[in-house]
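Exercise: predict the structure of this protein bound to DQA.
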Amino acid sequence: MPSILVLHGPNLNLLGLREPGVYGTLTMDDINTKMIELGKELGVEVHCYQSNHEGALIDALHEARTRDAGVVFNPGGYTHTSVALRDAISAISLPVVEVHLSNVHAREEFRHKSMISAVCAGTISGLGVQSYLLGLRGLVEKIKTTD
Ligand code: DQA
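Solution:
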């Protein structure tokens, strides 16, 4: 069974408590449970990881290179700043779907720019937990059609 990494960046461990008006009331564990359940339906094994540290996220992407068929990635604030994460995504040659709970384009201008979008298979923003779930569906379709 193909395996998929769901990768959460900084501050997403505080989901549920953190600005619920922007990010909703689900916790990261709630999102992970939903992703694992959807993965079972779609015939993929989902495993989840979160870090507040850029280097640890890069390590997780490197580990995914040989283990996983693709990545659903919410890089949090690093979306807008990290050349190193962008380079890691390019380096691993795996399909990565960028997801955001909030609509980054409807927020502050500094959130309008993503360092990683250009090297991702696709981006989904603004649909809350559905951004993650649709990201997984799209990724699995992509993996199946490129097998
Ligand atoms: C986010 C949007 C980012 O701008 C922000 O820094 C986050 C969360 C989202 O899921 O909406 O931490 O990635």
